[in-house]
Amino acid sequence: MSTPAALQDAPSARSGTRTVLVTGGSRGIGAGVTKELVARGRNVAVGYRSGREEAERLRARTPEQVMPVQYDLGDERTAASAVATVLERWGRLDALILNAGQWRGGRLSEMDAQEWWRIIELNLGGVASLTRTALPALLRSDDPSIVVVSSVVGVIGHAGDTAYASAKAAMIGFARSLAKETGRDGVRVNVLAPGFVDTDMTAQVPASARAGIARSTLLRRLGAVEEIARAAAFLSEDATYCTGTVLSADGGWSI
Ligand SMILES: NC(=O)c1ccc[n+]([C@@H]2O[C@H](COP(=O)([O-])OP(=O)(O)OC[C@H]3O[C@@H](n4cnc5c(N)ncnc54)[C@H](OP(=O)(O)O)[C@@H]3O)[C@@H](O)[C@H]2O)c1
């Protein structure tokens, strides 16, 4: 199939290896994204907060393509050092996959105000501050892209998740606004909203609740890390005419 004329005229990824920073890239969905991008031949900076060993295990498989970087959503200094480390090693940053997130359940009536704001600040504030720090480097890429990992609960809400779901919903507003701010510079900003995926984050959810979620999902099953990872890679680098979109990867749970 020939390339559409509009795409031929569009700036193509410059020569060299596309370089991506995946936050929370050491475990769960982020580790899946790391593996998917490595398989696609990318350089991947794997953000970890405290689990360096997991990140090192990913590096051991393909040391020339993977570099662990310490990054904590709640510590703006680590955003600056993570971006600086990537630029030092590879001299470029083409994409962010803002996957790191922290879940803390609780109904509004059960959560004190301090904890409630902490979850919002950590999840939403972390995404905003790393993006702000990385933007100058991204703007030097020929195909800069940001994928914000939200959640199905940010789209449809979920009882017992008011703080987390608020943060995930706000990320959608953040991404769409940023898409409007940076579209003219060629930056694509998209949101991925996964459904229930089996990871450490969801390990405490009882079997009966999992079964209930599977039953209310059109595909009648939970998601696999690899499926979410492919959707993230699609938004990051295949979806070249998509910006400001929210891609639900939830087996039809949200409709
Ligand atoms: N699993 C699901 O069903 C589901 C559904 C919808 C959306 N999501 C979203 O998908 C993303 C990944 O979830 P997951 O299930 O893969 O989580 P996970 O298995 O708990 O893995 C979390 C990853 O994020 C890192 N991380 C945790 N807290 C961090 C912090 N404060 N700062 C920086 N990094 C931090 C962890 O690094 P360390 O090992 O160093 O702590 C780890 O690499 C999250 O944003 C989550 O909200 C998940």
From TrEMBL:
It holds the Pfam family adh_short_C2. Transmembrane segments: none annotated. Residues 18-228 form the Ketoreductase domain. The keyword Oxidoreductase applies. InterPro entries: KR_dom, NAD(P)-bd_dom_sf, Sc_DH/Rdtase_CS, SDR, SDR_fam. Keywords: Oxidoreductase. SMART domains: PKS_KR (SM00822). GO terms for molecular function: oxidoreductase activity. GO terms for biological process: monocarboxylic acid metabolic process. Belongs to the short-chain dehydrogenases/reductases (SDR) family. This is SDR family oxidoreductase. It comes from Streptomyces bathyalis.
